[in-house]
Amino acid sequence: MKIKTRFIAVNALIVAVALAAVTAACLVKFSQELKRVAGVSQEARIKTFWELLKHKGNDIDIVEGRLKIGDYTVNGNFELPDRLKELCGGTATIFMGDERVSTNVIKPDGSRAVGTKLTGPAYEAVFKKGVPYRGEAEILGAPYFTAYDPIRNARGDIVGVLYVGVKKSEFFAAYHHLQMVVASIVAVILLLACLISAFAVSRLFNPLNRMHDLLKDIAEGEGDLTRRLDYRRQDEIGEMCTSFNLFMDKLYTIVSRVAGTTSQLAAAALQVQGSSNQIAEGADKVAQQSATVATASEEMALTSSEIAQNCLLAADEARQATDSAQTGSVVVEQTINKMNSVSEQVMAAARTVESLGQRSDEIGEIIGVIEDIADQTNLLALNAAVEAARAGDQGRGFAVVADEVRALAERTTKATRRIADMIATIQKETNAAVISIKQGVEEVEAGASEAHRSGDALRDILRQIDALNRQFNQIATAAEEQTSTTSEISRSMHQITDIVHDTAKGTQDAAAAAMQLNQLAQTLQSLVGQFRL
């Protein structure tokens, strides 16, 4: 929405609010005055109604179920309500007790509202408080301005009620007509105010519209910065036009200077971009070489570390071999000692076996003697048997003994032969055992000699393993030092690589910034070219 339209709308709103406030205040005051007039008119009507009743008489009472005023019977007699309507207008009713017995109030079916009861606040005021009621009340569903007075007999008892009233819609008909008239007048005044405001605002905003058109032409047209506003007014609009012209002068100067420097800025940006690109390329090459050196250093460090670990493992294995060789040397020495002991025991066993062979020979000699004795005994037994046979019966006992001796000699011969065979076998086996024992002794002596040589070899191996262990430790120490050195070199090269990368990134950023600066300079040149100086 344009400012002009807003200004007119605001003026119209202000006028409308002011007119609405004044109109509302007047209408409220008029409504209050109408209500006051309604109250006064009801008082006048009720007094007139009382005067009409007094013309009929002063003695009012209920006689035989009918309300009488002197000789005048009110029930079913509509003279007084109709007379009051002719004089003052409105409605009127006479109640006997709280029941309508005479009224000019017409029901929707056209009949008079006779026989209906009094209810609401009027009933409370008249019959419970014994006082008149003035105010609004509903009669047959319609709002009325009403006045109710109690009717008392000579004893002061309330025997009925006197009512007068007028419909609010009839009373406020003029008020509603006045509202329509006032609304029409307000609409006409508001329309005139809008027209006058539009005319005044148009004259007021004419310089602003001219300024708007000029700025729009500068923005969307040829961008002529030489155009100026020519308004010599002694008000805020004139000051605004003067300030606008000063602004255009400054803008003309600024754009002229910018147009002169953008070409230099673009050339400098191109030069900076070219230098930055060269620096970035060199930095990338240095970074690649540094990365290659760092990678080689890392590989060398890994190789040195592996060498150190392998040397340490070899040293550990050499120590284990040393321990095993030392253990083997001890075992060899123990073996030599055991073999010497076994050799001595075997020699002792050989001597024992040789002694056993000698004893077997001696036993063989003894067996030979026993065998000779058995042969001789057998021979003697034969001779004795022969002699016993010669002696006859006297020699039978001796013959029996001779037979027994001969049998014993034969068994002895057999036994000695078996023993001789066994001794011969024992001697043979003993000789074989002696030969085997001698061979075992020779082999034990040879094994002991070999064990001595093995012990010497193990001691030589121990000395060589100790030398290798020292060399492995020296190599591991050197490899660890080389690993530490190559790690330091790798870290340094990584740092150099990071620095070179940062430098390359910075130069790339500078090149990008120079490119952006060149683009901005070109954009600025194109923007400045839109203005006509």
From TrEMBL:
<dbReference type="GO" id="GO:0007165">
    <property type="term" value="P:signal transduction"/>
</dbReference>
<dbReference type="Pfam" id="PF00015">
    <property type="entry name" value="MCPsignal"/>
</dbReference>
<feature type="transmembrane region" description="Helical">
    <location>
        <begin position="178"/>
        <end position="201"/>
    </location>
</feature>
<dbReference type="GO" id="GO:0005886">
    <property type="term" value="C:plasma membrane"/>
</dbReference>
<dbReference type="InterPro" id="IPR003660">
    <property type="entry name" value="HAMP_dom"/>
</dbReference>
<keyword id="KW-1003">Cell membrane</keyword>
<dbReference type="Pfam" id="PF00672">
    <property type="entry name" value="HAMP"/>
</dbReference>
<feature type="domain" description="HAMP">
    <location>
        <begin position="202"/>
        <end position="256"/>
    </location>
</feature>
<comment type="similarity">
    <text>Belongs to the methyl-accepting chemotaxis (MCP) protein family.</text>
</comment>
<dbReference type="InterPro" id="IPR004090">
    <property type="entry name" value="Chemotax_Me-accpt_rcpt"/>
</dbReference>
<keyword id="KW-0807">Transducer</keyword>
<keyword id="KW-0472">Membrane</keyword>
<keyword id="KW-0812">Transmembrane</keyword>
<dbReference type="InterPro" id="IPR033463">
    <property type="entry name" value="sCache_3"/>
</dbReference>
<keyword id="KW-1133">Transmembrane helix</keyword>
<dbReference type="GO" id="GO:0006935">
    <property type="term" value="P:chemotaxis"/>
</dbReference>
<protein>
    <submittedName>
        <fullName>Methyl-accepting chemotaxis sensory transducer</fullName>
    </submittedName>
</protein>
<dbReference type="InterPro" id="IPR004089">
    <property type="entry name" value="MCPsignal_dom"/>
</dbReference>
<feature type="domain" description="Methyl-accepting transducer">
    <location>
        <begin position="261"/>
        <end position="497"/>
    </location>
</feature>
<dbReference type="Pfam" id="PF17202">
    <property type="entry name" value="sCache_3_3"/>
</dbReference>
<keyword id="KW-0732">Signal</keyword>
<dbReference type="GO" id="GO:0004888">
    <property type="term" value="F:transmembrane signaling receptor activity"/>
</dbReference>
<dbReference type="InterPro" id="IPR029151">
    <property type="entry name" value="Sensor-like_sf"/>
</dbReference>
<feature type="signal peptide">
    <location>
        <begin position="1"/>
        <end position="20"/>
    </location>
</feature>
